Every structure is written in C-alpha cells, then in structure tokens.
Amino acid sequence: MSLQVGSKISLRPKVQLSQHTTMQIGGPAESFAEPSNEAELAAVLDYARRESIPTVILGKGSNVIFPDEGFPGIVITLLQFEKNKIEFDPGIPEVTVSAGVHLYKFVLACRDRGLGGAEFLANIPGTVGGALVMNAGFSRFPGQRSEIGDIVTEVTVMNADGSTEVLTKNQLEFQYRRSNLSGRIVIAGRMRLWRRTPAFIEKEIRACFSYRNDKQDLKHPSSGSVFKNPPAPLPAAAKLIDELGLKGTRIGGMMVSPKHANYFINAGQGKCSEMAELIQFIQGKVFDAKGIWLEPEVRFIAKP
C-alpha cells in the first residue's frame, strides 16, 4: 500500500519486529512505515486516523518488547526520519537534532564542533527521539546521573493530526527514565551544550565506552538495563539481583546475563512471553529476599 505525499511512502506488510529491536523479540507488524520527513510522517498518521488503525512509534527499538504475536496495526519507525539533520547555532552552544539521528552520530558531530556535555549519550544504543521520551542517561560514576533531560531546552512534537508544536523547557518534565513526552511523537530536540576541545570530548567518549565494555554485556541481544535502579540509598538493581546468585537464570531463550545482572539477554530464540516470565521471576525473588520491588525500565507493547 502506498500513500502519496509528494514523494511516495509505502506501508510494508508483515515485517518481523524482531529485526527492529535490539532484544530481537517480536512477531510481525501488520504494517510497517519508514517516513523520512514530516510530510511522510503526517501522511501515515492521517491514514491511520482515517482508518482507525492503531500505531506505535519506534526508534532503534532498544527499550521496547513486542508481543510474540506481533502488532495488529502500523509500526512507524523514525530511524530514517531526517536522519542527518543536526543543526548548530552559529552564535551560542546549542544544537537542534532530529529524532531519527543516532545518539552516537549526534555526539560525534558535537565533538567535531567542540561542544561537550552529551558524551554520556554516545554509548546508548538509541535515537535522539527515543532518548528524549525515556530521558535516557548513563554515568560511570556511582551515585551520579547524567540524563538527556539535563541538556534539553525545547522539543518539537507532531500531533496525531499532523500539526507540530514546540514544547519549551518549562513545559517539559523529566524524571528518572521517564518524561511527559510519553505518548507524544517527538520529531526534534534542541540541546544546550558547552565549549570543550574535541580532544577532551573524545577522551570522555572513550572512557564511557571502556566502562560499558568492561561492565556490561554487549555480546548478546539485549535491551540494556531491564530494571530501574531503586532510589538511593538502596542498592542498584544489578547488585540486588547479583547478591541473590541469580546471574545465569534462564527461562526458555531468555537469560539473566552472567556478566551483568540487570541485563537480560536473548540466548537463542527468546520470546516476549519468556522475557515477561523472567522479569516476574526476578522481581519476586528480590522482593521476597530484600523487600524491594524492582520497576521495569523496558516497555512491553500491549496489543490494542
């Protein structure tokens, strides 16, 4: 099926969602769209609205789990959406970047301009849009949180009718791994950084990657951290799970990583149902032993 919007965009049928998530889980989408600009995105949304078809917006799929049966609607990926749009302000250290830009690409572009402050995003496998919605963050220093919400000045969103609006800083709410952008279609963000030498920025990028390679399981399909860390002074989720000897716990194809207890990996033909069962099992074990209920960071897409 094609939607004419000046240039043609197709709705591809029966696309396997396991190919579009980092956990490599999920059945087929009834339809799959890859808009490359605002007009194409608006056309898909208009079609879905007129036909009463449910939609899901997807970035790199690093924090999303789709059902084994798939999704009976349109999955719209923004991986191709203005994927090269990174615009630097010539007068002040600010940059506007499209939702479809990979975080690593964004950070490298800032490095080349001598703009620091976003280096912590370089090792997160996602796009700017997804990072804004979930307030993505990373720190190699215990007790410190660096999050994308710290550097955002405004966010542009598209509404279901295809119109756009700009949300300013005082309209944005960022909390630990969540924001008031959930349910909105983020198409761009504006960040305020600060001037640093490219060499200094590169050193920080490498330090972040080195820490991640040493501590986290990057060799197997995963969604990164499964659980949010409990609030201080409680121990981190990985520590709680590790102390109970639960590394290596496996249900079907899903396993608690032997390297990092808060990483659940797809050890082979893993399923959404097995991931959900493993999460519930670990939650129960931690709660029974520690009295702490771990809240998932990953998002399960419910069938409409």
Write up what this structure looks like.
This protein has 304 residues and is an alpha+beta fold. It has three domains: 2-77, 2-Layer Sandwich (Uridine Diphospho-n-acetylenolpyruvylglucosamine Reductase, domain 2); 86-201, Uridine Diphospho-n-acetylenolpyruvylglucosamine Reductase, domain 3; 218-300, Uridine Diphospho-n-acetylenolpyruvylglucosamine Reductase, domain 1 (Alpha-Beta Complex), CATH 3.90.78.10. The protein is built from six helices and 21 strands. The protein has helices at 38-50, 103-112, 128-134, 198-215, 237-243, 272-290, and strands at 2-4, 8-10, 12-16, 28-33, 55-58, 64-65, 71-77, 86-88, 94-98, 115-116, 152-158, 164-168, 174-175, 178-179, 185-192, 194-195, 222-225, 250-251, 254-256, 263-266, 299-300. Strands 8-9-15-11-12 form a five-stranded antiparallel β-sheet, with helices on one face. A four-stranded mixed β-sheet has the order 3-4-7-5, with helices on one face. A four-stranded antiparallel β-sheet has the order 17-20-19-18. Strand 13 and strand 14 form a beta hairpin. The longest helix is centred in the C-terminal third of the chain and has 19 residues, at 272-290. The radius of gyration is 20 Å and the shape is globular.
